[in-house]
Write a structure and sequence with these properties.
The protein is an alpha+beta fold. It is built from 14 helices and 16 strands. β13 and β14 form a beta hairpin.
Length: 493
């Protein structure tokens, strides 16, 4: 009920603009009880003089029984069709496929009736997520990249050029759980069978970044000027951010400076005592801190090998929790089945069944999410260790050589936690792994390299099931420390 064109036709008949209807079949006029009653009433009151179809002509004095049968069949057809469509959609959702058009980055496969990655848009969308996960881009910057660099548009149902992304659409994409393999339909959650664009762990990071930016209206909304590497990253001891600016002197030369944003500000009656610092001085101090982080490649590979065994041990210790979650999952699945049986046996009415099913489905989804997070947490931990070690082996070379300020900013954010400009000195709170490396000037002798290479090979061939034999680490100052192979060498010192 409520079809706009049908309602316009009824109003036109009321006004006397027409006294008859031409239609292909009678069931085209009314496929619900309300429209059926309206048509029948108008025909009986001679507001409609005749209804002409391809098969016959209906008049006010005709027997209404035939019309009732035909319109009733049309109404029943629609009701059966609706139930069949809903049942088909439910079956498709349970198999892990989304009925209808998938979000941008995916395509419907008409042959297999599944959802496949869009070969053109999938890698572009994936790059947008990875850029946002670095924390160096805002949704507005992603919107500009999607429009200008990637030439992404919202797909249309028909062929042709789609419309541009808008501000709300980029937020919708970042929050959409479909990209992490979850389908939410009518309040229920289903595990999708399509290929994930990001992991569940990364999806939670995206949501956390969105929440953080929402709570921080003072966050930098535009892309930092390439002239300043540390723009928007440093704080002053007074608590304000350090801003960057440039001045052109009378001789025509351009000079760049960093200063507290409160400098010369008298609106609150407080001024900052910190002096203005030339940009090249601050950036040279950042380079000096970076140059202390160096790790020989053989030592990094040795630590990776031990990290892999440590991760195996974590997986072994987490096995009990995983088994418990799996048992809970099986119990909830059985409960859902029993609810369906109780509904069929009329032990539960429809409302009780729906309420209990929603509660059980929500709990089941929570258990499945915890299972997925447990598995991904172990993978993320090992990957984070490897990424940190890889960065430590090349950062001393990459940072001074690259002219790309975005790469330099990413390196600084990966290595440092806080950046404070105090008394013309840049104080960087370095993250623990890189702090440990920067405290020691590690140099390997040829004997050290040979010993490390031999131990890496023995670790690779060791039986992975004997996890407990792969943990010779001991705790010292919250760090995992193990005696290195070559005693008395430069490495062990």
């Amino acid at each position: 009920p409520g079809r706009p064109v049908f309602n316009e036709m009824i109003e036109a008949l009321k006004r006397g603009e027409a006294d008859g209807i031409i239609t292909w079949k009678l069931d085209r006029l009314a496929r619900n009880a309300l429209d059926q009653g309206t048509i029948q009433y108008f025909l009986q009151k001679s507001i409609i003089k005749r209804i002409i179809t391809n098969e016959k002509c209906f008049l006010p004095e005709d027997n209404v029984l035939l019309m009732n049968v035909e319109l009733g069949m049309a109404n029943q057809y629609i009701m059966d069709l609706r139930r069949n469509v809903m049942r088909g959609n439910k079956t498709k959702l349970q198999k892990g496929w989304l009925p209808g058009r998938p979000p941008i980055g995916y395509l419907n496969d008409p042959v297999s009736r599944t959802i496949l990655p869009d070969p053109e848009r999938f890698p572009k969308m994936q790059s947008l997520f990875q850029k946002f996960l670095t924390g160096n881009y805002t949704p507005q910057q992603l919107l500009n990249i999607a429009r200008n660099e990637l030439q992404l548009t919202i797909p249309r149902k028909s062929k042709g050029v789609g419309k541009d992304f808008d501000h709300s659409y980029i937020y919708k994409i970042l929050r959409d759980p479909f990209y992490v393999g979850t389908i939410i339909r009518a309040g229920e959650t289903y595990n999708g069978s399509h290929e994930r664009m990001i992991t569940l762990f990364e999806h939670q990071q995206v949501l956390a970044l969105l929440t953080k930016q929402k709570k921080s209206p003072s966050a930098v909304k535009s892309k930092p000027k390439e002239l300043f590497i540390l723009s928007g990253m440093m704080k002053c001891p007074c608590g304000r951010m350090v801003s960057a600016y440039r001045v052109r002197k009378p001789n025509g030369k351009l000079y760049c400076y960093y200063s507290c944003s409160r400098k010369g500000c008298h609106s609150d009656g407080i001024t900052c005592a910190e002096t203005v610092v030339p940009a090249d001085v601050v950036e040279s101090q950042a380079l000096k801190a970076i140059s202390k982080i160096t790790l020989p490649v053989p030592l990094a590979e040795w630590i990776k090998a031990w990290a892999k065994h440590g991760n195996m041990h974590e997986a072994f210790l987490g096995q009990l929790e995983l088994e418990g979650l799996n048992r809970e999952k099986e119990r909830l699945v059985k409960r859902l089945r029993s609810l369906t049986i109780n509904l069929l046996d009329e032990v539960l009415d429809r409302d009780e069944y729906t309420c209990e099913k929603l509660k059980t489905s929500a709990t089941l989804h929570d258990v499945e999410t915890r299972l997925a997070l447990n598995m991904e947490r172990l993978k993320e931990w090992e990957r984070a260790v490897c990424d940190a070690l890889d960065l430590a082996t090349v950062v001393k070379t990459i940072y001074p050589d690259t002219k790309n300020h975005d790469i330099k900013r990413l390196i600084l954010k990966a290595i440092g936690v806080t950046f404070v400009l105090k008394n013309k000195e840049l104080e960087i709170t370095i993250k623990k792994p890189f702090k440990v490396i920067s405290n020691y000037q590690i140099a390997l002798t040829p004997e050290d390299e040979q010993s490390l290479t031999a131990e890496i090979r023995s670790l690779e061939t060791k039986n992975t099931t004997r996890v407990e034999s792969c943990l010779p680490w001991c705790s010292q100052d919250d760090s995992n420390v193990r005696p290195l192979p070559s005693q008395g060498s430069a490495l062990s010192s």
